[in-house]
Amino acid sequence: MKNFIYSLTQQYQKISHCIKHFDGIAALALRLYLVPIFWMAGSNKLMHFQDTVEWFGNPDWGLGLPFPTLMAVLATTTELAGAVLLGLGLFTRFISIPLIITMLVAIVTVHLPNGWQAIADPNAPFANAQVLASAEKLEKAHEILQNYGNYDWLTASGSFVILNNGVEFAVTYLVMLLALIFIGGGRYISLDFWMKYHLTKRL
Q1: I need a labelling partner for 147 at 20 to 30 A (CA). Which of 83, 101, 120, 155 fits?
Q2: How far apart are CA 18 and CA 14, in angstroms?
Q3: What are the pLDDT digits (tens) for 157-172?
């Protein structure tokens, strides 16, 4: 029995040694997933910058944040720079911090009042009153479209849904960024790795 456990341990160590050369794949997957999300968010803010400033600052129909121009500049710059740096795997841990702050601000100011779900689904866990109320509205919308619209054409690209805009997606991105703070850009497939490699060689 002792020999069997020893042999099993040895095999496990060999497998672990081989697998470690591929441990950068997880970091690469997280980075590539987040790049288009932050690039699109930053690009949209930049293309409609004045609207972004007004939305950030207006207390009636916007977020009512102080210094809206500064906040808009910081959010836009963080998201665009974040997308580029995550794509390159450069300063991955560093850029993840302001991106996390951006996500936290978005969660608290935009998404939290809507509960958890991004897409309203009354049958899903964490369905709040707003989500439960969406079932009747969605059913009525389907009825109207079936009776007065070309329903097959309208649904050819996918089913109609009600956007609940809850915290679900923002929290998911935040968790992914937290993971990148701990694992970094990834072995072999990030500039962070090669910068550290060459600096270590020189020392």
Answers
A1: 120
A2: 6
A3: 988 899 999 999 999 9
The closest of 178, 179, 39, 37 to 100, measured between CA atoms, is 178
CA pair distance 53, 68, nearest whole angstrom: 5
Q: How far apart are the first and last CA of the chain?
A: 46
Q: What is the DSSP letter of 15?
A: H
Whether 46 and 80 have beta carbons less than 8 Å apart is answered as yes
**For every one of its 203 residues, what pLDDT tens digit does the chain have, with 9 covering 90 and above?**
667 676 777 777 777 777 777 889 999 999 999 999 999 999 999 999 999 999 999 999 889 999 999 999 999 999 999 999 999 999 999 999 999 999 999 999 999 999 999 999 988 888 899 999 998 999 999 899 889 888 889 889 988 899 999 999 999 999 999 999 999 999 889 999 999 888 887 76
CA 197-198-203 angle, to 5 degrees, is: 100
Cα–Cα distances (Å) from 112 to 7, 27, 102, 133, 137, in that order, read 52, 28, 14, 18, 22
Residues in the chain: 203
CB atoms within 10 A of CB 194: 14
- Token pair 């069997």 is found at 4
Residue 91 DSSP one-character state: S
d(CA 79, CA 178): 16
